[in-house]
C-alpha cells in the first residue's frame, strides 16, 4: 500500500441531466477541488475521471466515477488497487439525507444509511472504514420518496447558498487530508 497518497472520491450520477441534483453534491465538491488544484479531470481505465495533484499539502487523486451512483464501488476499488491507497486514506464526499442542508459532518466508517453509493463502495472494498464528508441535503418534504428527492435539483432557496456550501465542503476535504479527521471535525462540526 502507498501511504503517501490520498484517494478523494466525489459521488454523483454522470451526465448533464443530473448535474444540479442533490445526489451530485459530491461531484460539485470535486469539481471545485479540481479548479483549486488548477487541473482538469482525465478519463481513467477504472471507469472514472481522475485528477492527480496536491490537496492540503499532500499528494491526492481526485476521482468522479463515470458509473451511476449505485455502481460507484467498482471504480473506487479499481482506483484503490491501481494507486495502492490504504482504506484509511480514502475519502468519499456524498450527499446525506439525515443532515440538514448547510451542515457538514465528517466521520470514519459506519453504515451506508440507505445510500446506494456507499453501499456499493463498502461491498466492493470489503470494508467500511473509509472517511466520509457528508454534505447535508435534508429530508424530503411531506411524503416525497427519498430517491425522488435526491434526484431533484437543489431548490431555488438552497441554490442561493449552494456555492458557499460547496466551498465549505471543499475546505473540509482539504482540512481532513492536510490535518486529520479530529482537527477537521473540530473546525467544521462547530459551524
From TrEMBL:
Keyword RNA-binding: yes
One Pfam family, short name: Pept_tRNA_hydro
EC numbers for this chain: 3.1.1.29
Keywords attached to this entry: Cytoplasm, Hydrolase, RNA-binding, tRNA-binding
Family: Belongs to the PTH family.
Gene3D superfamilies: Peptidyl-tRNA hydrolase
Catalyzed reactions: an N-acyl-L-alpha-aminoacyl-tRNA + H2O = an N-acyl-L-amino acid + a tRNA + H(+)
Catalytic site positions: 23 (proton acceptor)
Official protein name in the record: Peptidyl-tRNA hydrolase
Transmembrane segments: none
CDD domains per the UniProt record, alphabetical: PTH (cd00462)
Binding partners and assembly: Monomer.
Function of the molecule: Hydrolyzes ribosome-free peptidyl-tRNAs (with 1 or more amino acids incorporated), which drop off the ribosome during protein synthesis, or as a result of ribosome stalling.
Subcellular location: Cytoplasm
Broad class of the protein's primary localization: cytoplasm
PROSITE patterns in the cross-refs: PEPT_TRNA_HYDROL_1, PEPT_TRNA_HYDROL_2
Chain sites annotated for binding tRNA: 18, 68, 70, 116
Site (Discriminates between blocked and unblocked aminoacyl-tRNA) residue list: 13
NCBIfam families per the UniProt record, alphabetical: pth (TIGR00447)
Amino acid at each position: 500500500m502507498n501511504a503517501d497518497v490520498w484517494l478523494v472520491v466525489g459521488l454523483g450520477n454522470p451526465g448533464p441531466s443530473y448535474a444540479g441534483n442533490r445526489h451530485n453534491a459530491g461531484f460539485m465538491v470535486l469539481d471545485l477541488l479540481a479548479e483549486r488544484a488548477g487541473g482538469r479531470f482525465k478519463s481513467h481505465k477504472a471507469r472514472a475521471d481522475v485528477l492527480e495533484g496536491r490537496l492540503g499539502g499532500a499528494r491526492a487523486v481526485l476521482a468522479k466515477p463515470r458509473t451511476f451512483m449505485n455502481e460507484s464501488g467498482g471504480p473506487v476499488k479499481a482506483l484503490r488497487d491501481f494507486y495502492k491507497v490504504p482504506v484509511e486514506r480514502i475519502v468519499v464526499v456524498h450527499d446525506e439525507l439525515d443532515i440538514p442542508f448547510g451542515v457538514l459532518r465528517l466521520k470514519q466508517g459506519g453504515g451506508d444509511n440507505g445510500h446506494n453509493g456507499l453501499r456499493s463502495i463498502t461491498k466492493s472494498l470489503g470494508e467500511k472504514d473509509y472517511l466520509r464528508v457528508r454534505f447535508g441535503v435534508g429530508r424530503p418534504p411531506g411524503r416525497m420518496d427519498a430517491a425522488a428527492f435526491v434526484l431533484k435539483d437543489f431548490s431555488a432557496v438552497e441554490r442561493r447558498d449552494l456555492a458557499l456550501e460547496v466551498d465549505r465542503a471543499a475546505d473540509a476535504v482539504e482540512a481532513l487530508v492536510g490535518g486529520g479527521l479530529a482537527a477537521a471535525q473540530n473546525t467544521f462540526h462547530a459551524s
